[in-house]
Each structure stands twice: as C-alpha cells, then as structure tokens.
C-alpha cells in the first residue's frame, strides 16, 4: 500500500511540483507585455506628461513594497497608480486619449524600474507578483480604455463611477485569485482555502487601494496631475500603518520560534525538534484545509508544545515524550498550557497544547458508551500529536525508509491514539518530501 | 459629566444656546443642493463620530469629525457647517450622558461655524471648487482648520476644567494628549479639503472614497496595538517559564528589565532603544537554562568545568535570541552582560568602552536585583546596602555613569521590594545554592590543579 502511494506521488517531479504555475503566469504576462510594447512603439506614446507621471508613481509604489502577514508581498501604491492610469478619463479639461497597450507598457516599465532598487540591495525581484498585478491592470485597461472617450461615460458621472468601481473590484478580486493559485501551487494548499485566506488578508488593504485608484482618477479632473501626489497621501498613511502591523506580526513569530528553543538549550528535547514538529504540523494542517489564522495558532502551539518540560526537575532522557508514561505526558501538556495561559492572549493555543496527548478516540466514562461521543481533542491537537510522535521516531534523520516505517507505525494505532486523517495527511507530506530530496 | 456644578451647567448651557442661535438663522436660505450636501456630510460625521477610537486615558476620543465640518465650511459656508456639526447629536457613540451629548453637539456646531467664518474672512471661496480655485484656497483653508482645532480644544478644555477642577491629575493627563491630538486633528482636517475638491466631480461619493483609506489605516493601527500587547504578554509568559525552574530568581527578568529601563531613561536614551533594552532585560538570562541543574544547586566550590558552564550562559542566551530580528543592540547586551569594566568578566573579557552600552546597563540592574532579592544563602538585602555595594564595585565591575544614573532613578522612583519566594508543597523547583549575578558573594571556584 505504501509503495502504490509513493508511485502515485512520484508522477510529479520536483521541477513540476514547484514554480510551474508561476512560470505560466510570468510567461502569460510577458507575452501580453511584448505585444503591448510592440503596438505602443508602432503608434507612439500619447500624453507623454501623464504617462511619465503615472510611470513614476508606479515605480515609487513598487519601491515601497510591503510584506503582509503570511509572506505575501504587495505594492499598494504602485497598484493603485496603475489602476488609476487605466481608469483615467480626463486630466484637467483635457481628455485622456491613450490606448490599453500604452497602459500596460507604462505600468510594466514603472514596475521594472521600481524593482531595480530591490535587486540592487539583494532582495528578490518577485516577478510572479509583478506579473499578477500587471495582468489585472491589463484586464481593466482593455475593458475601460475604449470606453473612456465615450460620450455617455464623460457626461454621466454616476455611470462612470459605478463602472470604474466595479472594474477596480474586479481587478482586486482577480489579483486575489491569481495569488491564491500561486499559493496553491507553492504550498500545496487547497484552492478554496487559499482564496478565502487571500481575501481575508487582502480585503482591508484592497479596499484602500481601490478607493485610492478611483480618487486619483477623479481628482485628476479637478487638480490635474497634482492629484497623484495629493491622493497618494492617504494610502501612504495606510501603508505605514500596515507595515508596522506586519512587522510586529513577524517579530512575534520569530520570538516564539526563538524562545521555543529554550527547551533544546536546556537539553529537554532534541535539537531542532520544535521547529521540525511545527513545520510538519503546518504542512499537515494545510493538507487538511485549515485556514491561515488557525494555522498560525497551530504553528505557535507546535512550537511551544514541549514548553511544559521546563517545569520538570530534570530533562527526560533523549527528550522524546512518546516514550514516557501517559501520566507524565499529560503533566507536561498541562504545565505547558499553564505557561501559555499566563500570556492571556493565546487561549486557544493553550487549549491545543493542553490536549496534545489526548487520544483521538477515547471512551470517556462520563458519556454513555452507546450515546454521543465525548468531544474529542481539537484538530490542531491531533495534528501535533501525530507530528510529534513522527518526529520522536524519526528525529533529524533523512532516511526515507525510517520515515515510511514511522508512518506505518502511527497508522497501526489509528484506531484509538492517532487521528487517521492526520496520519494520512502526514504520510502525503512525508512522501512529497522524500520525492523532493531524491 | 456625572454630577455637574452650577458653573459647569451654565457653561454647557451657554455653548448650546450660542450654537442654537447661530443655526436658527440658516435653514431657510439653503438651496435643495445645499441640503443634500449637508445631509451627506452630516451622515459622514455621525459615522465617524460613532466609530471614534477611544484614547486610553479618560473619555477623550479621537475621530474624523472635523473632516466633515471643514468640508461643509467650504461647500456650504459657516451656517451649513454648523448644521453638519450639530449632527453630533445623532452619534451612536455609547456611554454619553445627555449633558455630554448636548455639550458635544453645541461645541461642534459652534466650532464649525467659527471655522467657516474664518474661511470667509480670509476670502476663501464658498461653493463647489474648480480647477482654477486650487492654489489660492489652501491658505484660507489651513487657517480655518487651525481655528477649528484650537476652538475645539479650548471649549473642551473649558468643560474639563469645570468638571475636573477637584481632580488635579486629570488635568495633567489631558495636557499630555493635547499636542498629539492637535496634530492628528489637523491631518484629518486636511482631508476635508480633499473631499470638497472631489465634490465637484463625484458629488456625495467623495467622502466615501477619501475616508476608506483612512479607516483602513485606523484598523491597521488598532491591529498593531493588539498584536503589540499580545507580543509583550507572550514574551513575559515565556520568560517566566524559563524562571520557574529556579524559584529564587522568579520575577528577576522582569525587575532587571524595569531597572535597565530606569537607567536608560535617566541617561536620556532614545525611545526605541529604551524599548529594545526592555526586551534585553527580559531575555538576558534565558541562556541559564543551558546550565545543568546540579551546577546551580551545588553548595561547595565549583570545578573548572562547572564554572565554564556558567560562563557560557550568555552565549547560550545569544544562541536563542539571535533570530529575533529587531533586537540587534539587545543581542550584544545579552551576550556581554557579565563583562566587567576591568576586563575580568566573561565570556569575552572585554574592558571599559569595548563593552556594549546595553551590557553595561544590564549589568548594574542585574546585580542590584540579585542583591535585593532573597537567596538560599542569605535574606534580601536592603536597597541602601545594595547601593553601597554597587558604589564599591563602581569602576571595577560596573560603569560608574550607569551606577550614578541608577542610584538617582531609584532615589526618585523607588524600587519595588520583591516578594520573598514561597514554595508550594507540590512544586518542583530548583533551589540554587549560589547566584552568579551576586557581586557581594562571588562564585567560589576551586583552584585549578
């Protein structure tokens, strides 16, 4: 059975597992871009001043990229500028007569110039994110540019407003879908889960981006190109606030990761144990379709699952908790949960840690044997239980045979101890890893 | 504004009465379009007032009200602005007494009217803006916004003065937030002009578009504050977990952190560095977990290896916290907090100015807390004795400047006496026989063979 599964997994080669979606996206954007540049070159650039101003704004926004929680990158100001350029009707009294191809060209040039400083300081250029943004802008431009000179649009503000609003929303949704697809590809998440997570994270900032794009496009009628500077200001405020928020989120995670290692330094657990268990647990959680906020809780709980050992007088030899009595395991879990509860903000994390040893199916004397089941431990606890046991059996060993044997051993105990779904997900994660290593 | 004095009542009543007189002159002269604009801006004011963020101190709140009133001052003039300001009466903000609501309403209406008058007096053009009105309008508008903010603060300050006359402390805290409020109010005021500018193109949609980015920013700020609180609580809990093992040192990290901050403030360290040293103090001893329990418990002299294990703990601590991105300077502090000015400390044996500033600060607070806490081999020593001991080692073990700063800060603020530790019956805790932080009882190491 194990062998058939492995063969099934082997059909995907490492280079296929990663990057194939990214490649597709970048190629699509590239082809579109080349066509647009060629056409623009043939017809020449219209409204040069406007084009340069928007190109500069887009480049500026691309320089000020922002890392959102969950390793997402976005360029709110650049994106808003590009959308505004696609949605512009008039600058002052003078109608904006330029083609969708020109929008694509100007946006792409702005993005590339804005990416150069990132490359110069050795940060990745993040081409796939840029490609996704470019595609969204291109879609809006190809729909709206032919309509921009239309008499109905110019006359009826209400019509223009509703059309532009819906196009901005479409662009933002499209970006969320493309990013979610990339994440499905990269992290093996489920599409629906990835899309919901993406919308959840992007919605507030997306609203600000869309509103700013419309502001710039409309205000250009009253203020001319000064609108670009004036109406970027609110978005800049928003971006600063988001940067601080994302920064503290990242520091938080780093700190928990670092402090979880005190158990290793104290000799309570094997070096790297907490980190490995948390990585494995998160991979399993993703496989089982857990959403990002809960995934973060799972990660915290997995990192700190052995923190209760600090209260033990002497380290357990070897640190492997599956080899000590259930009573001791329970005590460690309780002590750990107490420590986490001290923080008062991680209530559900404490609960996950508390129940990390509970068997998947327990006959609780408080409930009648034939009646309803006792409420089992939370899914995250069951995942940590499986991941922890797997790591205690395998450790830092890279031997695929040992991993397969460990999964097999866990599988034998799924009647009572381990959640069969978690073990199957674990098996898929482990198989994928061994394929990548080969 | 629970029980009001007569003077306070009179004050509130007169503000409301003046506002009512000003508004009563207006409505008949408005056109239908003006009424529409007033309605939209009034709605905007109600929304922004209802979602106002509370400031932590007292009942003052911070909202984008004046965005709406200033936009109204430009679009429909002073009386229209006063009507918009009076919409404060419909705010959904909870916990307002009727008197409070009446005063806020009167105050906003009066303020808005005065700002509108200032705008007109400076030849600001009232009505829909066009491309040609642009550079000219900024001056009058800025002065009007300033007037709005100032009048608002003066009226508010007046009522607070009447109400809290007896409580001197409240007035001081109000003065504290004043400057920050003023600036942020002016910022919000600027958006009033943007709304007015957009009004000619998109009409009533203007406030919606302008305020979305601001509301999102405010949301992010709230999220940030929440995460920050959670972060601090979590770091505190984890440090405590490290300490539980050795029950005599419980609370030590927390106190060292506080002491280091006292020194840092005393010598005028920049705010972000004070923040960093706070975390450094909390985390300075996490590496102690790497020292085997039996070494900490040993009553006799330590062997060379055992002493080496203790000397290694700052490095172990560094290993743990190295990956925390923000702590660059704090890392150096944690690694070198046992160096001595005379170069006889560990782990590197740095001397004088070679020792990072953070480490020199931590060393003073660390030793002081150790001496004033109970240890298994002695009771807690009084602060005076510990200060004398610090002075004695000042210049050899400690940096004299930081010892002086610490002594000055303690003289002013005092030092909380740690509770003597109480061990519960079922608790598993190690009782350390020696304390590596205690300068008055240095670790005894057997002479090498």
Write out key terms for the chains shown.
heterodimer, A: 438 residues, mainly alpha, two-stranded antiparallel ribbon, elongated, disordered N terminus, B: 449 residues, 17 helices, 2 strands
Oligomeric state, counting identical vs distinct chains: heterodimer
Tally of strands of chain B: 2
Helical content band of chain A: over 70%
In N-to-C order, the SSE pattern of chain B is HHEEHHHHHHHHHHHHHHH
- Spatial strand sequence of the major β-sheet of chain B: 1-2
* SS summary, helix count of chain A: 19
* Number of E-type strands of chain A: 4
Structural class of chain A: mainly alpha
Strand-residue proportion of chain B: under 5%
Largest sheet of chain A: 2 strands, antiparallel
Mean pLDDT of chain B: 82
Order of helices and strands of chain A: HHHHEEHEEHHHHHHHHHHHHHH
Question: Can you give a write-up of this model?
Answer:
The complex is a heterodimer of chains A (438) and B (449). Chain A has helices spanning 2-10, 14-17, 20-43, 48-63, 76-87, 100-120, 127-148, 151-155, 157-187, 191-223, 226-260, 262-265, 273-287, 292-303, 326-342, 347-354, 379-394, 400-412, 420-437, and strands at residues 66-68, 72-74, 90-91, 94-95. Chain A has 438 residues and is mainly alpha-helical. In chain A, the strands form 2 sheets. Chain A has a two-stranded antiparallel sheet. A two-stranded antiparallel sheet of chain B has the order 1-2. By secondary structure, chain B is mostly helical. The radius of gyration of chain B is 31 Å and the shape is elongated. At the A-B interface, helix 10, helix 11 and helix 15 of A face helix 7, helix 8 and helix 13 of B.
